[in-house]
Amino acid sequence: MKVLIVFAHPNPSSLNAALKDHAFGVLRKEGHEVQVSDLYGMKWKAVLDADDFPSRMDSSPLNVIMAQGEAYGSGTQAKDIAAEQEKLLWADAIVFQFPLWWFGVPAILKGWIERVYAYRFAYGYKDGTNAYRYGEGILSGKRALVSVTTGGPEADYGPRGINGSLDQLLFPLTHGALFYPGMDVLPLFTVYGAMRLDEAGVANAKLALEQRLKRLFVDEPIRFRRQNGGDYLDRHTLASHIAPEVSGLPAHVS
User: Fold this and answer.
1) Which residue in 49, 96, 187, 232 has the most C-beta neighbors within 10 A?
2) How many H helices and E strands in the chain?
């Protein structure tokens, strides 16, 4: 199988870098083809702006959606964007490795999503509408594993932890950026208290990640509700008879 690792950490000596390198080795040993997008190493441009559309002649204010759709359809996107889209289409699974910064992904990873997820590619797929999303889309059939490290201990992210549930903090990534264009998203892999790990703790983290990677194409994905699976009759709001006692983010997990 083919696996893309998207890595976002500026320090090549960090725990995240060690986990990325370990993941690469494990996946290769398991017989998979592996590519790595090291966003800091690539000096990835994180800002979506007019420079992403080098062939755009229109002098009017930038309409990002229309500019993305035109550039994607005509093959005139910035080369770095097109290259990452090709990697996504090539991969059978994508592993994201990053630290939790301010309750979300690093800005460079958010910028990767904003630029690579062009209109008519990751949204507005096929017909320019919202008909193919949340379980359907250009990345349908691919698997996604989010491997994240936190500075705080696990208790901070427990059911009543002061930082909130990590599943909910990263819902915009897992349900939004990954499930939206069709990927099957696996439960999070998390290393808590990353800054306080000793040598044994790092070894345990690598072993735990290795075990998850060996089950990358076996483990059951999160059961997010599909937009077109019958739970959203108008494609927007859960039908009244679906989990009527649940509201908020948990309602969208079956």
Assistant:
1) 96
2) 7, 6
The pTM of the full predicted model, rounded to 2 decimals, is 0.94
Q: How confident is the model at residue 57 (pLDDT cuts 50, 70, 90)?
A: confident
Residue 177 has pLDDT above 80, yes or no: yes
Token pair in block for residue 149: 């490290």
| Cα angle value 141/230/94 (rounded, 5°) | 20
E-strand stretches of the chain: 2-7, 33-38, 93-99, 143-149, 184-185, 189-191
Burial 72-81 (b: 16+ CB within 10 A, else e): beeeebeebb
Q: How far is CA 105 from CA 73, 109, 163, in A?
A: 29, 6, 15
- Domains of the chain, CATH where assigned: 2-222 (3.40.50.360), 223-254 (no CATH)
Q: Is the pLDDT of residue 144 over 80?
A: yes
User: Per-residue confidence at 14, pLDDT binned at 50, 70, 90?
Assistant: very high
3-class DSSP assignment, residue 111: helix
The residues, any chain, with a CB within 8 Å of residue 10's CB and separated by 6 or more, are 40
pLDDT, residue 195, reads 87
Cα gap 21→210, rounded to integer Å: 11
